[in-house]
Amino acid sequence: MAMRIGVEEEFHILEVESGLLVPRAGAVLRRLPRRTFTTELHQSTVESNSGVHATLAGLYADLTRTRRRLDAAASSLGLAVAAAGTAPLAPGVSGHPTADARYRHMVEEYRQVADEQLICGAQVHVDIPDRDTAVGVMCTVSPRLPVLLALSASSPFWQGTDTGYASWRTLLWQRWPTAGPVGCFADAAQYDAAVDDMVRTGVISDPGMIYYDLRPSAHLPTLELRICDACPRAETVVLVAGLFRALVTEALELRAAGAAVCDGRHEWLRGASWRAARSGLEGALVDPVTHREAPAPDVVRGLLARLRPALEAHGDWETVSDLTEAALAEGSAAERMRRKAREEDLLACADLLIAETRGERRPRGQAPVARRQAPRFVAGTAGSGAPEVLGS
Predict the structure, then answer these.
(1) How far apart are the C-alpha atoms of 270 and 274, rounded to whole Å?
(2) Taking the CB of residue 259, how many other CB atoms lie within 10 A of it?
(3) Cα angle, residue 179 at apex, residues 285 and 198 outer, rounded to 5°
(4) Which structural domain, as residue segments, surrounds residue 309?
(5) How far is CA 335 from the centre of its chain?
(6) Whole-angstrom distance between the N-terminal and C-terminal Cα of the chain?
(7) Which three-class secondary structure string do you get for 72-85?
(8) Is 6 helix (H, G, I), strand (E, B) or coil?
(9) Which residues contact 248 (CB under 8 A, 6 or more apart)?
(10) Which of 30, 127, 259, 277 could anchor a disulfide with 254, C-beta 3.0 to 4.6 Å?
(11) How far is CA 207 from CA 48, 184, 274, 356, in A?
């Protein structure tokens, strides 16, 4: 039986005319079912929860259907949605927090870190037998996660400026006290004790603030991938989901065989994640086997080859290998955004994100039907139908 998968996607809300990030989540959500769509820390973000699927084809159909529904709700208000780690154009450094006691506490406690949480990610859930197993396989899966980050990288711009990074969202995200690579734990009891200890310190207020790149879900029988940027193209989400399911499948097989898979030394992983955030698919990555720098295409294809048996076991090999080669040929979303910004401007870049989120493929070099004036920034102010739905 195929291991089931589901996805949570976060979307920026943009004003169509200006391309600016706007705090209109409440208005959009009033036009949508709350079973599938929900709010986030800031009112410039909407989250969708997919159904639970055994096949990548079923997941893709769900994601594209959900995106169409969200786009229609936003369009009725003169708005649009964009799936990307950061929005190219934003009017300032502070968001508009959602009126919720937990979110208010986060804004008061973490100040600018929370104010600047104007970022979107894509989380993938994979079925796991139990929490002990989920915790046990994390050590095996974790060293390969920076490769998935590189595939998803879609946040080169922040407050109207090119950051030089493929995933600036990663750098913003890692400022939270529990973000980044997860450590190694013997079992769920040890992991839960570590989480409880962190809550008791007062550094975080509840287990939901554990933001590791990988974690056992607190309320679902799944292992949750959290390292990735939101992806403009639904195909990229499907690629990441297929690879993640294969990584978990391989880890489960190694665990069942009693193989030694981890030496407990993951200190190099933060650097590997930084490298993936900096370079995306357009530079070097840290090879998870050799721990040395290597061209991104070589590292990605090496992971694909390693996972072929697990991908074939789920019937995913052809789909995932085709999507991988397409991603390497076309470049990361970050690179596509940079190309558009060089050819035109950041407003055209926002248009590209909106189009790709809708599932459109505008040929390179084709200008939008009507051009508008891109907003100027002043220095110093840049600042469903499925039987089950994932929980947030």
Answers:
(1) 6
(2) 11
(3) 145
(4) 5-358
(5) 17
(6) 25
(7) HHHHCCCEEEECCC
(8) strand
(9) 3, 126, 128, 137, 141, 223
(10) 259
(11) 21, 17, 25, 34
pTM score: 0.91
Residue 46 CB contacts under 8 Å (≥ 6 apart), including other chains = 10, 11, 13, 25, 28, 29, 32, 37, 38, 39, 40, 70, 81
Query: Going residue by residue through the chain (392 aa), what tens digit of pLDDT does each one get?
Result: 579 999 999 999 999 999 999 999 999 999 999 889 999 989 999 999 999 999 999 999 999 999 999 999 999 999 999 999 999 998 765 668 888 889 999 999 999 999 999 999 999 999 999 999 999 999 999 999 999 999 999 999 999 999 999 999 999 999 999 999 998 898 999 999 999 999 999 999 999 999 999 999 888 899 999 999 999 999 999 999 999 999 999 999 998 888 867 777 788 999 999 999 999 999 999 999 999 999 999 999 999 999 999 999 999 999 999 999 999 999 999 999 999 999 999 999 999 999 999 999 754 444 443 444 444 432 232 333 333 545 53
381 domain-assigned:
no
Q: 363: Cβ–Cβ under 8 A, 6 or more apart, which residues?
A: none
For the record, the structure tokens of 341 come out as 């910004």
Asked whether residue 198 is domain-assigned, the answer is yes
Q: Considering the domain boundaries, does residue 306 fall inside one?
A: yes
Query: Domain tally for the chain?
Result: 1
